[in-house]
């Protein structure tokens, strides 16, 4: 009995003693004979309806569950059990929000939702770092999560990690990887004879396995190729670029629909032969198939989009063509331009971010489809140096593919099938995409080109400066009603844009495109306008600035502020998404989180608690934040450099007199305008469309004419 006060004093001292560096479970056995009774460890003060077991501590269903303790050290990490549920832990250290967690108006919060929104996982999450060594008070408040046994334990750090040492090790590792790659490459190049012999054996083995179908297929390709080459050299072929495009689209369509492997192989060989005869046709097929990437071609247990297959087959055909022509250097005549260097810098930044991504499988998949293959499209276009007629084929294919996507959407509108219910119950079309916004993003890039061609029908779509030829089509001289014919696709695209219900398209993207195109037209034609028209336009612009803007701007701002304060509205979620993205970038400023990693980081760490209804957002819905988050700071700088190069080219006079460049300027303005609130580049179709737009403006094929051979037709700077 006389020892009881001393024991109580020892227990009180243990409860007040700080946790020192090490790991501590959230619940420990309490001394029962079978070890089945668990409770809090000494020094941890739980308040509320917590439960304890071997799994850890579980939150009660009533609000107000708290945990507090004192630790001595420089950092704190919580070990938690995440899963497919919505819950948060708010953490304060010394009365301040924990410095390693994102914050909202209430404080710093730790998200207990797992990265894939399904799998239960136990992870250790740093919540406070860089604290001065000493005693610190921790307070944790639980919000939801009962029955999940969310809190497993916590770890105390004693000293800060040796960051310079880790960085030095990383640099040395990268240098070693580069040296190893160089040695491997040197070995391959040094044993060309053995490599050629090995490839020969592989080719012989493949030929033995082709069988009857393969033999007939190869024979047919060789036969067609001989006649093709003969007709080309004899000058008897008069199909023109549209004929080549029609043949390519028909053959690629047959390849896409082919049901059996033998038929697939035969059409693939035929398509490869066609691309060897006309390599730039592969760029056109890639541009055409880009908006249909969600409907891939299955191959055994894998599936690949037709855009991906087209660009890969184009690259193979280009290499084979150069080999047949005995041109060892694939990039002969390449003149490095500033845009090429920035493309290479962007590729390096994206590759490094992908290599260090926390979720590498999805990172490398997006790296292949959205970064490598569009850059391959760019590189092939620069290497092939297409004529204006050939690049016109690429643009026509780009427009036809977009019109096909619009046609699918309009068919959904007419039949009432496949519609998506938007805000206020509106029925919206989505075309070949999963979301109406995706269709609006792509059609927004199409609309300015169609507008430019309908407003300037005298522009030469396929013409050469040397004068008309049988393979040319000069818009404006084919039919008297050409404006009507070029206006029909414009009207259809506009109707499809209306059907998407996309506010970003109609309030940002299309107005930005029209403003830029109108400004360029006025700049190029201002001196040709009568004086009274110039004075009238000046008065209207001045009245708009002094009268309309002061009236409209406050009302627009008030409406946006009201929507931003309305939970569940698009503006409400956008603002919180951007705030979460800034939290992410503060913690990953140099390399970002890697391609296609945003979703997993967002819903497991950065999503705001009051935006819990939207946990599946895969990108920041802002073009510049997206570049930064996916490819790091260097990738963002490269993306900005592309824009500077593009608009510097647009700044030259005469842009509105060339429908190509005029449409490209409007399409890029749409990209930037709509990209302020949505995706701007990191989708298969948008990245390919960007390359078409960029190449059309920055490397205009019409500024340097052909001298008769494709190999000498350069996209000029």
Summarize the structure in words.
With 717 residues, the protein is an alpha+beta fold. Helices cover 56% and strands 11% of the residues. It is built from 19 helices and 18 strands. The chain has helices at 4-16, 163-190, 192-234, 240-257, 261-277, 280-289, 306-324, 338-355, 360-384, 388-415, 436-455, 482-499, 503-525, 531-564, 570-587, 598-606, 623-650, 659-675, 684-698; strands spanning 22-25, 28-29, 38-39, 45-47, 51-53, 56-58, 66-73, 75-82, 88-93, 96-97, 108-111, 121-128, 134-143, 151-157, 297-299, 302-304, 420-421, 427-428. Strands 4, 7, 9, 10, 11 and 13 form a six-stranded antiparallel sheet that branches. It has a four-stranded antiparallel sheet with strand order 1-14-8-12, with no helix packed on it. Strand 9 and strand 10 form a beta hairpin. Helix 8 packs antiparallel against helix 9 (360-384). The termini are far apart.
């Amino acid at each position: 009995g006389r020892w009881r006060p001393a024991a109580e004093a020892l227990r009180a001292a243990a409860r007040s003693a700080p946790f020192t560096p090490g790991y501590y479970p959230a619940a420990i056995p309490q001394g029962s004979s079978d070890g089945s009774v668990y409770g809090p460890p000494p020094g941890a003060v739980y308040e509320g309806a917590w439960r304890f077991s071997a799994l850890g501590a579980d939150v009660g269903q009533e609000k107000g569950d708290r945990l507090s303790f004192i630790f001595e050290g420089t950092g704190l990490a919580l070990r938690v059990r995440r899963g497919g549920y919505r819950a948060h832990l708010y953490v304060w250290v010394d009365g301040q929000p924990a410095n390693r967690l994102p914050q909202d108006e209430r404080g710093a919060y730790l998200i207990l939702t797992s990265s894939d929104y399904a799998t239960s996982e136990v992870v250790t999450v740093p919540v406070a770092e860089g604290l001065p060594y000493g005693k610190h008070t921790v307070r944790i408040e639980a919000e939801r999560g009962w029955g999940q046994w969310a809190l497993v334990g916590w770890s105390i750090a004693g000293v800060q990690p040796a960051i310079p040492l880790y960085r030095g090790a990383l640099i040395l590792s990268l240098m070693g990887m580069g040296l190893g790659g160089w040695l491997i490459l040197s070995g391959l190049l040094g044993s060309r004879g053995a490599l050629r012999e090995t490839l020969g054996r592989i080719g012989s083995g493949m030929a033995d396995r082709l069988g009857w179908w393969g033999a007939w297929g190869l024979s047919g390709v060789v036969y067609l190729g001989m006649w093709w080459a003969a007709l080309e050299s004899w000058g008897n072929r008069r199909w023109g670029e549209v004929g080549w495009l029609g043949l390519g689209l028909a053959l690629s369509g047959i390849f896409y629909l082919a049901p059996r492997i033998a038929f697939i192989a035969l059409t693939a060989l035929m398509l490869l032969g066609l691309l060897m005869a006309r390599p730039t046709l592969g760029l056109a097929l890639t541009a055409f198939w880009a908006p249909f990437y969600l409907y891939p071609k299955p191959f055994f247990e894998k599936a690949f989009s037709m855009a991906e297959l087209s660009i890969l087959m184009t690259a193979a055909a280009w290499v084979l063509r150069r080999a047949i022509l005995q041109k060892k250097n694939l990039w002969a005549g390449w003149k490095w331009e500033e845009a090429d260097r920035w493309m290479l810098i962007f590729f390096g930044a994206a590759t490094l971010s992908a290599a260090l991504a926390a979720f590498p499988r999805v990172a490398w998949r997006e790296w292949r489809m959205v970064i490598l293959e569009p850059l391959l499209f760019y590189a092939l276009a620069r290497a092939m140096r297409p004529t204006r007629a050939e690049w016109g084929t690429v643009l026509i294919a780009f427009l036809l593919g977009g019109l096909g996507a619009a046609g699918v959407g309009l068919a959904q509108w007419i039949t009432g099938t496949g519609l998506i219910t938007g805000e206020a119950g509106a029925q919206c079309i989505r075309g070949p995409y999963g979301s109406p916004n995706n269709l609006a993003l792509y059609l927004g890039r199409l609309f300015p080109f169609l507008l430019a061609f309908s407003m300037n029908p005298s522009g030469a779509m396929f013409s050469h400066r040397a004068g008309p030829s049988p393979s040319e089509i000069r818009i404006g001289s084919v039919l008297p009603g050409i404006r009507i014919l070029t206006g029909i696709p414009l009207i259809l695209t506009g109707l499809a844009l209306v059907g998407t219900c996309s506010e970003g398209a109609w309030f940002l993207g299309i107005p930005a495109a029209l403003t830029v195109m109108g400004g360029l037209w006025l700049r190029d034609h201002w001196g040709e306008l009568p004086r009274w028209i110039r004075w009238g336009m000046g008065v209207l612009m001045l009245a708009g600035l002094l009268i309309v803007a002061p009236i409209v701007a406050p009302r627009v701002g008030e409406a946006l502020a009201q929507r931003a304060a309305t939970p569940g509205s698009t503006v409400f979620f956008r603002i919180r998404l951007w705030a979460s993205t800034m939290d992410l970038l503060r913690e990953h400023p140099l390399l970002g989180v890697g391609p296609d990693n945003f979703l997993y980081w967002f819903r497991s760490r950065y999503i705001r608690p009051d935006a819990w209804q939207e946990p599946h957002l895969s990108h920041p819905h802002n073009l510049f934040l997206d570049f930064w988050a996916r490819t790091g700071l260097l990738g963002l700088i490269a993306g900005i450099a592309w824009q500077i190069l593009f608009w510097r080219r647009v700044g030259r006079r005469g842009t509105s007199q060339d429908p190509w460049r005029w449409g490209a300027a409007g399409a890029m303005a749409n990209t930037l305008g709509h990209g302020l609130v949505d995706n701007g580049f990191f989708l298969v179709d948008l990245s390919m469309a960007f390359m078409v737009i960029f190449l059309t403006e920055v490397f205009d094929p019409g500024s340097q004419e052909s001298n008769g051979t494709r190999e000498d037709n350069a996209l000029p700077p």
